[in-house]
Amino acid sequence: MNGHGYLPVNMKKTYRYTMKANSRNRVVIEHVEPEVDAGLFPIKRIVGETVMVRADIFTDGHDSISANLLYKAPKDNTWHEVPMQFIENDRWEGTFTVEEIGNYQYKLLGWINYFRTWQRDMQKKAEANQDVSVDKLRGIQYIDAALQKAAEKDKIALLELIELLDKTSDTDKVISLVMNTDLSTLMNKYSDRLFATEYEKELGVVVDRKRAGFSAWYEIFPRSCVSQPGTSGTFKDCEHLVPEIARMGFDVLYLPPIHPIGKINRKGKNNTLSADSGDVGSPWAIGSDEGGHKAIHPSLGTMEDFEGFVGTAKRFGIEIAMDLAFQCSPDHPYIKEHPEWFKWRQDGTIHYAENPPKKYEDIVPLNFETDDWQNLWNELKSIVLFWMDKGIRIFRVDNPHTKSFAFLEWLIEEIKQGYPDVIFLAEAFTRPKVMYRLAKLGFTQSYTYFAWRNTKQELTQYIHEIMKTEVREYFRPNFWPNTPDILPEHLQYGGRPAFMIRFVLAATLSSNYGIYGPAFELGITDAIPGREEYYHSEKYEIKKWQWEQPGHLRDFIARVNKIRKTNPALQMMWNLDFFEVDNEYLLFYGRVTEDLSNILLIVVNLDPYHKQSGWVNVPIRQLGIESGQSYLVHDLLGDGKYIWQGEKNYVELDPQESPAHIFLVRKRLKRETDFDYYM
Amino acid sequence: MNGHGYLPVNMKKTYRYTMKANSRNRVVIEHVEPEVDAGLFPIKRIVGETVMVRADIFTDGHDSISANLLYKAPKDNTWHEVPMQFIENDRWEGTFTVEEIGNYQYKLLGWINYFRTWQRDMQKKAEANQDVSVDKLRGIQYIDAALQKAAEKDKIALLELIELLDKTSDTDKVISLVMNTDLSTLMNKYSDRLFATEYEKELGVVVDRKRAGFSAWYEIFPRSCVSQPGTSGTFKDCEHLVPEIARMGFDVLYLPPIHPIGKINRKGKNNTLSADSGDVGSPWAIGSDEGGHKAIHPSLGTMEDFEGFVGTAKRFGIEIAMDLAFQCSPDHPYIKEHPEWFKWRQDGTIHYAENPPKKYEDIVPLNFETDDWQNLWNELKSIVLFWMDKGIRIFRVDNPHTKSFAFLEWLIEEIKQGYPDVIFLAEAFTRPKVMYRLAKLGFTQSYTYFAWRNTKQELTQYIHEIMKTEVREYFRPNFWPNTPDILPEHLQYGGRPAFMIRFVLAATLSSNYGIYGPAFELGITDAIPGREEYYHSEKYEIKKWQWEQPGHLRDFIARVNKIRKTNPALQMMWNLDFFEVDNEYLLFYGRVTEDLSNILLIVVNLDPYHKQSGWVNVPIRQLGIESGQSYLVHDLLGDGKYIWQGEKNYVELDPQESPAHIFLVRKRLKRETDFDYYM
Q1: Percent helix, strand and coil across chain A, each to the nearest 5
Q2: Of A35, B96, B476, B487, whose CA is between 20 and 30 Å from A506?
Q3: With helix as H, strand as E and coil as C, how does A516-538 read?
Q4: What is the model's pLDDT at position B192?
Q5: Nearest CA among B225, B253, B248 for reference residue B503
Q6: Which of A26, A39, A62 is closest, CB to CB, to B355?
Q7: H-assigned helices in A532-643
Q8: Residue A427: active-site member
Q9: Do A437 and B15 touch (CB under 8 A)?
């Protein structure tokens, strides 16, 4: 009876063709959504969000069926059950809300509802004036079966009903007894789910804390927080910046590696091969005789200084995010302690990082294929635990796409099993399939292509892909207009307006965003000719920033972040919708809470050089605005107030003044006389 | 390290997050196509067809990778390997051809090609004038490793190369040695696939014989093949019809149930409740004191007569298809022998089939939920084996959507494991998801909604769904313009042209089609008022057909079937494409063999009442016709020949003459003078 050769090995045991106990299950459950890669990976949610599950559920013949959505919270031992509703074309739907962080599970159960089938058929027969006296008896049997399992208080009701049915012969009376909703409730409660079909997979949800879905990141090199010229900045110096970073409204402060920097093959300014004595090297060339991934660069201060700094930030509502760069400088202690973790060349020299013809002489990659991989994995995990012990809960992982997928999946899973509040951001700027795989295997947030998406078409297409397709179930974007590695052309040439445009876009198109702080805030445009990279990059030298440099964006940034914090619609990822506007340079979109209590309409002029104007098309029906009714739109950015009516409304944006409107919609305006109300 | 709660149970063992031996595998394989329901079901193919497999395959970092498609024929113990080709965006593709019927398997293998990575890097470094002397040594190591496994004849070549490389220092010379293609071939042959990733599922292909993909069915009630009026037709009578059915070009002759018909609750003419003494009853009410599913209705003849009939048909190239109706009449022997296989009402009477308020008093359904289900399953299987023993290899399963899916899946699998040449046609006219499920679980062919798809939009939409989406991998359509249950409105009112239209559509839109023979061939339009059902249906009475009735379609049918048999393009299912034509009543489509050796352009006038004309848009580029070149289109139906040029060409179809063109395209025509060539 066996030999079903072609079945996927891991399906065999659940497969039905053999004569198994469940061969009498007649309900089919298929095409479950969401389900990432056939259930291989979990979906992601934020505490308080809902999980809406849909599936095709049906059976042979005409019997009526029921289906439940089952789910488990992280610490639950038993399943919660939610009845699913039939939509159409054999599609069913059920929803649950995730209330705590950690790993939820969900699965589906479908069964034939014999009692409801009987109810339905009784009614149909009665309507056709057919005799139901014999059918009645079967119903009584069902009720009697339920009776055996019923709680005392329900027993009476069921018993009474049996007696009533028993002595009632008038068809209409019988039907009214049969179709009684209390009865249906009781029967749903007590009738067996004979031959119930359980969906063959248990699916997962990773539930993260609020900040995983709503965060504003600020990146800064601590060594550049210089107090006295000619010296390196310290954590103590950084502490002085915290209040201002908090005032700007950021809640994650991300630091490039803070560890000792390699001395062998150290890079000079502008990534030159030969470093001068004074050169400080790249923080990503981790490790020296002063220590490795668990040490702090001496010139930044002591471990106590670091913990003090983390504490101060915390008091200002800011979390410190650390960099996890799983690589070493040629003089990292690991190289002596664990030579087997690295690749060696035939001449006995170590194999430094390269992507021919490019060479990274100051960095040595780890060999994840080493025979000693278990110890390597555990050591790397211990680095994460070490810094978590210092109060760190957010990690930005450097170039994860050059590390083993299996290792990363294991690492994140290992950590989040014990500490589900930990956030991992994937710094992968690579091919889409690879970026998505990293998100699937566990990264909480991911860098995106946002930095290179400028036109209306580029932005809408890309955002549709990541926010409106299945990708949204596992890929949580974090928009960065710049990074220490990326100074996009439009920032180089667009002037201050370009910075404002890109900032508003990042902060309102994505609930998670970040900037490479000082260089963005101060509008630095100094690039290596013909490249999208910073000239005299902070990666290779200490910068003394001129904080008061004219034209800085500090107040603009503060204003946008304040708008984000006071408008719930900007704190969720998936409620973004693009609307029509008759100008290719204008981007028009809305963010709205489900209950319509917070409606934002955002217009951005993508052209940093010229004034652009056009007619936006407001989807008033979708926003619950009656076509006759006028409404006030309040520009939270420029503070202007406009009375709009209907769908078509005129907008005009001069990048020199403000390249964007962030309109808060107020619907209560009925007549001009009400207008004072808002003044 | 465990507790990965949310992983689907059946994934756990292949899942990577634990520290398993394969944790060093760095290549990822995902999004494999085709793959039906995550591999739960096999795809379908016909002998000689190809299976093109695509997948996303990639790894971390910059290493170059290789991937193979592995497949097994039914009797193979080892896997055949086909190298996959990179397409774009991490997508890879590989193809194999299925050459025998039975169950094939396929899976994927991906690994890092260290040697090719080395070759690539060597070249890049050389181009950048970097020193490669040390890198050269690593290459020599790779080659030496291969050498250990190489066959004698290859050993020399590899050895020589090592020596050459060893003593060559000039970079250009080294590179020319390294990039040598013979070397690459040898290395692909012998270098090990360290840490190769195997796709976690083995996927299946059910390969069927040619007729499963190309067949013309003719349905006939043997009892109506009457020789003497007032008597029932017999198998001997049927034998006389075989030559004519063969002349018309049919190759499958399908018989409704030929078993004894129940006497209890037998239906009268037009499905009336009370049968007169003379009424013969419905063949689907199977079983009486004369026997059950393994017996033959006495008035049809003996088992020998039946086998003789099957043999005669065979000699004329016709296969007999039998009906599998898993249900009983109230006096079927099973009911006494196995009362536990049926449902009983509280008053001790048997539970006949019903779909309230509809009743089918002459039919008793089997209870697939019976505790004795194993014996029930085995008995039903024995019915199939019984008739296979009489030479039957094609079964049309009656109302499979009212039988247990698990049972049908088991039955078909059981039979096809031993007899992969058996064909099962699903007679399921029900909701789409249910029809698709039946196809997935194993049916070779399926009835469709064709009978109710009439307009251009209805036809193109539906055919796109079943032939151009993933559905085509498992659902093999069989188009029927009518059945004993269905006399569509357009046949009732469209007259002879409507029959011709629907026939050409069925026979050219689908490589599998069938007709409820006499009633179609003779253009019967006599319907129950307001219904799409035959009045005085043959289901309840014996018909004496007037074969020579004027206007019969016999010759038209013969002509179309001849065209099908002489044009390979009409013998495959998936090569159908719809083309533009500027008239909503005209349907224009093409069927073309891959090598363009057989090109058919088909135009059908969907309007049976009026002449329709329009300009078709011939995709000449796709057909390999140069834009300047004229070409001859030969109407194989009306025998007209036309010289066409370019894309836009004029057609005109008068349904009274012929509602369709089936153009064979001949490209060799260059000048008018060549024209004689075709006369």
Answers
A1: 35, 25, 40
A2: A35
A3: EHHHHHCCCCCECCCCCCECCCC
A4: 85
A5: B248
A6: A62
A7: 554-566
A8: yes
A9: no
For chain B, the straight-line distance linking the first and the last C-alpha, in angstroms and rounded, comes to 81
Question: Which one of the listed residues B49, B398, B473, B607 is annotated catalytic?
Answer: B398
Listing from the earlier edge strand, what are the strands of the sheet with A91-97?
A27-33, A50-59, A91-97, A85-88
Name residue A322's beta-bridge partners. Answer: A255, A395
B630 by DSSP, 3-state: which? Answer: strand
| pLDDT tens by residue, B128-169 | 999 999 999 999 999 999 999 999 999 999 999 999 999 999
Please give the ipTM for the structure prediction: 0.94
Q: What integer pLDDT is reported at residue B15 of this predicted model?
A: 37
Q: Which residues of A touch B60 (CB under 8 A)?
A: 401-405, 434
Catalytic annotation present for B198: no
Nearest CA distance, A549 vs chain B (angstrom): 41
User: Which residue of A31, A43, A60, A367 to mutate against B (max B Cβ within 10 Å)?
Assistant: A60
CB pair distance less than 8 Å for B369 and A417: no
Q: Of the listed A427, A521, A538, A607, which one is catalytic? A: A427
How many Å apart are CA A39 and CA A55, to the nearest integer? 14
Q: Which two tokens stand for residue B180?
A: 């040598």
- Closest C-alpha among B666, B660, B618 to residue B637: B660
- Decide if A104 and B6 are in contact by the 8 Å CB cutoff: yes
CB contacts of B3 in chain A (<8 Å) are 417
Tell me the shortest Cα–Cα distance from B303 to chain A, in angstroms.
30
Instruction: Map tokens 């309040």 to a residue.
Output: A634
Of all residues in chain A, the one with the smallest CA distance to B369 is A24
pLDDT in tens, A72-87: 999 999 999 999 999 9
- Other residues' Cβ atoms within 10 Å of the Cβ of residue A315: 10
For the question of whether the overall pTM of this predicted structure is more than 0.90, the answer is: yes
Rounded Cα–Cα distance for residues B477 and B439 (Å): 10
At A113-171, the pLDDT tens digits run 999 999 999 999 999 999 999 999 999 999 999 999 999 999 999 999 999 999 999 99
pLDDT in tens, B624-645: 998 888 999 999 999 999 999 9
Other CB atoms within a 10 A radius of the CB of residue A566 amount to 12
The secondary structure element, H or E, covering residue A143 is: helix A133-149
Average confidence (pLDDT) per 10 residues, chain B, 679 residues: 33 48 92 97 97 98 97 96 97 98 97 96 96 95 95 94 94 94 92 92 97 98 92 96 98 98 96 92 98 98 98 98 98 98 96 93 97 96 98 98 96 96 97 98 98 98 97 98 97 97 98 97 97 97 93 97 98 97 98 96 98 98 90 96 96 97 82 49
The b-or-e profile of B284-320 (16+ CB within 10 A means b, else e) is bbbbbebbbbebbbebbbeeebbeebbebbeebebbb
Q: Is the pLDDT of residue A665 over 80?
A: yes
Residue B145 confidence (pLDDT):
95
- Measure A100 CA to nearest chain B CA, in Å: 15
The residue of chain B with its CA nearest to that of A106 is: B6
Determine which of A4, A6, A32 to mutate to test the interface with B (most B C-beta atoms within 10 Å).
Answer: A6
Q: What is the pLDDT of residues A109-119, one digit of tens each?
A: 999 999 999 99
- Name the residue among B8, B124, B368 with its Cβ closest to that of A203: B8
CA torsion through residues B367, B368, B371, B376, sign: positive
How near does any CA of chain A get to the CA of B319, in Å?
Answer: 28
Q: Are A668 and A674 in contact (CB under 8 A)?
A: yes
- Band the pLDDT of A18: cuts 50, 70, 90: low
Nearest alpha-carbon partner for A664 in A524, A564, A594: A564
Q: Is A566 helix (H, G, I), strand (E, B) or coil?
A: helix
